[in-house]
Amino acid sequence: MIGSEYVWIITDACANLLDWFNATSLLSMNGILGIRRTLPQTDQPRMNEFAKRWKQRFRAQNPTIQKPELNAGALVAYDTAWALAYAIDRLLRQGSFDGGFSATSSSTKILNFKIFDGGEDLLNQILETCFLGLSGPVRISRERDETLECSYDIINVIGNSYKAVGSWTEKGLNISSKHLVHWGGGSRKKPRGWVKPAPGQKLKIAVPWLQGFTQFILVKEDHANAGAQNQIYEITGLSIDVFKSVVKRLDYKLPYELIVDK
Q: Rounded to an integer, what is the distance from CA 68 to the centroid of its chain?
């Protein structure tokens, strides 16, 4: 399914790792499209100095990796650690950590754990934290519907490397006219898309039966509607809602069947 007439789109989590793949792995992904958060340009001298120090330490700890590269996800993680450090520092200066721990019972005598009781105070300090990080302005808000100011590069794997063919920002999608997308199989011709299925043929989609993160996928047995031979399942969650919304926006009808994978 990596050949012609197929399209693979990878998410930010996978696209961030492309710099770590060897040439053989990239060649097997030829024609893949992906989105990757754009590296910020807020403070380039500071960024260059940090990248230099990071690469020196990383090479010392991971000598087998030849070309270590920073990505936006790593910078966000770095700034997140600093945001937490700033918040804890303010609590320490206020003396809020004194007596802020309660003992907990343990079945072992080796470890005596304590629980921090100032979670709400720490959260308030985090919400008040605001500084210019390596990933851009860092400000955490309680408002979950607040617009995130970030942009993504649209990248295309070609041969044993990749290049940006466009961008995706809050202003919309922008595809560069300078670069032609290389599709699966090395073709530059746009795939036709979904071919009209034969009567009764459906796209079968495996749905994992997960024990955790039920907000994304939740599978429950539907005993009321179960038949004599086959078990019927009620499948809900954010991932399912997003999938169904995308299917409704397609220019063609896509018959499908969700199959629970235990």
A: 20
**Total domains in the fold of the chain:** 1
Q: What is the rounded distance in angstroms from the CA atom of residue 241 to the CA atom of residue 2?
A: 27
In 10 A of CB 35, how many CB atoms? 18
In a domain, 224, yes or no: yes
The number of residues in the chain equals 262
Tens-binned pLDDT, residue by residue, of the chain (262 aa): 777 778 888 988 888 888 888 888 888 888 999 998 887 776 678 888 998 999 889 888 888 776 777 888 888 889 999 999 999 888 888 876 665 666 665 555 555 666 777 788 888 888 888 888 888 888 877 665 555 567 889 999 988 888 889 888 878 888 877 778 888 877 888 787 666 666 667 888 989 887 788 899 999 887 666 654 556 888 999 999 999 998 898 877 888 999 988 7
Element (H or E) spanning 33, and its range? strand 33-37
Residue 60 structure tokens: 């010392």
pTM of the model: 0.61
* Secondary structure letter of residue 5 according to DSSP: T
Tell me whether residue 210 is in a domain.
yes
Quote the CA–CA distance of 202 and 255 in Å, as a whole number. 5
132 domain-assigned: no
Domain-embedded: residue 231: yes
Question: What is the H or E stretch that residue 34 is in?
Answer: strand 33-37
Domain hosting residue 222, numbered range: 203-261
- The Cα-based distances of 142 to 23, 107, 125, 128, 253 in angstroms read 43, 38, 12, 11, 40
Residue 219: how many other CB atoms lie within 10 Å? 19
236 vs 229: CA distance, rounded Å:
23
